[in-house]
Every structure is written in C-alpha cells, then in structure tokens.
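>> received
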Amino acid sequence: MISKKEKYLTYQGSKICYHLYKNDNDFNKPYLIFIHGFLSSQYSFRKMIPLLSNHFNIITLDLPPFGDSDRIKSFYYSYKNMAKLIVYFMNQHNIKEAYLAGHSMGGQIALTCAYYYPKRVKKLILLAPSCYLMKANRLTYAVSWLPFFHTFLRKLLKRKGVYEMLRQCFYNDELITEEMLTTYKKPYLDKKIYRCLTKMLRDREGDLDVKCIKNISTDCLLFWGKQDQILPIKIAYQMAQDIPQVNLCTFDFAGHLLPEEVPHVICDYIISNCKE
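>> returned
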C-alpha cells in the first residue's frame, strides 16, 4: 500500500511543504525527488506520481516561495541554496542518493545538485530544464530595489493572467482545467509572494555555465517538447552536446509543461531506464 503524507520541514527559517509517497511494505525502493519549475509547485507532478509509485519512494516539495511553503524575504533564493535545500532534505531523511527529476527551473536546480553533490544524485531526469540563462543585468538588478517594484511585478503577472501563462506553456490548451487554474493561481493571491519574487530576481546567480555542465558526470535523461514556447527545442540540442552522459527524448506535439501533457510516455521511459 502506498501511503501519502503531507509534512513540513524548516530550512533556514522557511517552512517547506512536502509530500512523501512511500510503499509501507517495501523500504528498499530507490528515492525519486521531484523539483518543480518557476511559478509552479509540486502539484505539477500529480499525474506522474501514481504511474511511478510502484517503482520508487517519491518525494515532492514546494520550493519557497511557491506552493504551500513559506514566503519570507529573509530566505536566500539562489539556485545553489535551493540545491543545498534538496541535499539538506535528503540528509534529514537519511537518503544517501536519489534520482532527481526537475522541470524547467527545477531542472536547473537538479543540475546544480549534480554539479556540487555528484555522489548524492543517482541519475538526472530533466524535463525542459532552464539552461544557459544569465543572471539579471545591472539595470534590472538596480530597478528591483525601487520600493514599488514588487507592486509593478504583481500588476504585470495579474495582467498576463494564470490562464494565459498556462496557455503559453501548453501545446494542447484543451488540457487546461478549472482545477488547474485554481491551484496554480492560489499562491499569487498572497501579496507576500511578490516581494519574494523580487528578491529571487536579485538572488538568482544565473544558470550553470557551459564549462560546469560539461563537467557533470551523472547520467541524464533529457525530455523536451518541440512546441515549447518558453524554452525552444534548440536548447535541448545544445544541452545534448554539452552534457557528457545524456539520452535525449523529444515530443513532436508537446509544449513546456511536459508533466501535464505527456506524463505516461515520460514515466514509461523513466521506469525502463532507471532500473535498480
């Protein structure tokens, strides 16, 4: 029987919400940790969990300031610190090594984990990971200190709207449901998140550079939608050249939100390529 437990863990003063899906009768299964993308949450992996729960002990978590985790300005929102959070989480649960599955920003955090903590990552499973993005330029960094910047950010995201943001992430926008809209919208009703997003803009150190990526020795499964409007498919081909041990799988009719659009195919691929 697979048990689902919602719990909280405190890291650097921030309360982190996570779910643990564990087979009560089999404690020897490998661990798979899902890491979500920017403006998202652990909710984005809900379709994949039941497809993989017979093969892995699964952990999902809400990176701060997203989902049901804390939204505090004192947290350091760098990718390296997020990677430290993943390793801290593993240490707290006595997990020596785990498969890391990251989508978009979560993919970059997974890559950062593999770069700084290679012995803790059994295999990388990257779903359209953020890559080759520089840190905020000096002008953007300076403007972010203006006292009204977080209000501007709030109005900008409100003008765009959750539905339009999701449409841009999907190839088939008929998959967008009212439940998805309600869940993805929830964190942005809290005004505190906009101050955190402003700080995240300043804290983000930029993606790993090419030299770092080429030094990642961890095996990697790389998935990408050819209709991705957020991170174009050309990035996938570049990553396939730069990551030393990578297996690239592309989808003709999928956009950026792969966990929502093609969960079954990805999960089948994970099961067949991550056998103990």
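>> Strands lie at 2-11, 14-23, 31-35, 57-61, 98-103, 121-127, 220-225, 246-251.
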